[in-house]
Amino acid sequence: xxxxxxxxxxxxxxxxxxxxxxxxxxxxxxxxxxxxxxxxxxxxxxxxxxxxxxxxxxxxxxxxxxxxxxxxxxxxxxxxxxxxxxxxxxxxxxxxxxxxxxxxxxxxxxxxxxxxxxxxxxxxxxxxxxxxxxxxxxxxxxxxxxxxxxxxxxxxxxxxxxxxxxxxxxxxxxxxxxxxxxxxxxxxxxxxxxxxxxxxxxxxxxxxxxxxxxxxxxxxxxxxxxxxxxxxxxxxxx
Length: 238
Fold this sequence. Notes:
This protein is an alpha/beta fold. It has 2 domains: 4-125, 3-Layer(aba) Sandwich (Rossmann fold); 146-233. The chain has helices at residues 14-26, 52-62, 77-93, 107-117, 133-143, 168-172; strands at residues 4-9, 29-39, 66-71, 98-100, 123-125, 146-153, 187-193, 204-205, 209-216, 222-229, 232-233. A 5-stranded parallel beta sheet has the order 3-2-1-4-5, with helices on both faces. The chain has a 4-stranded antiparallel beta sheet with strand order 7-6-10-9, with no helix packed on it. A two-stranded antiparallel ribbon has the order 8-11. β1, α1 (14-26) and β2 (29-39) form a beta-alpha-beta unit.
C-alpha cells in the first residue's frame, strides 16, 4: 500500500519527537518534511527557544529535511495564520494530505488546526491523542527518547528545572498540579537522542536567563509572565 504523504510539525521537543517515533513505527506515512517556526529576528524556535542550527542538526540526524517558517517578532495570529496557510497550500500542491502534530488533549488548539487546514483538504493527525497525559508520559518513557527542559515559567518549575532530563525521577517529583507532559505550558524541551536519531545531537548549555512578557488578557488587563530559558547552543568547533 502506498504511504500517505505527510508533514510533521516539529517543535524540537519531547511531544513532536514522540509523535514522530509513533508515526515511523506505524509505517503508514511518508514524512516529507519537519515543519517548524522560528522568530525571524532571533532565529530561535517558538517558545522552546531552540537555535536554528540545532533544529537543523536534529533534522540531519533524523534524516528528514526541516522547513523553517520565520515569523515576524510580535506578529499576531493573523500573520501566523496567513504564513501557515501559504505553507499548507504549497504542500497540498506537492501531494501532501496530512499534517501531523504532537498535541495530547488541548481541544481548542486541535480545532484551530483543523479549521485552518480543512480548506486545503489536509487532514490533522494526532498520534498522541486519546490516552491520559499520564499514559502518554508512561509511553514516552518507554521510547528511549532523551530530552531536557529548556523553558519554564518562573512562578512554576522555575530556574531549578532548566537543563533537567525528562526521566522517571523527574516525573515522580513534579508538583501535583503540574501536567506530566507540560501540556499547560509548565515546561518545554529539547530532544537530542533516541531511536528516531542516527546519532545524538551535540549541544551546549550556557547560563540560563529570565525573560518577561506583557500579555493582554480577555478582560482588557495586562499580565506580566516571566519565563526561564536555557542558553542552548550548538557546540563551538575549533
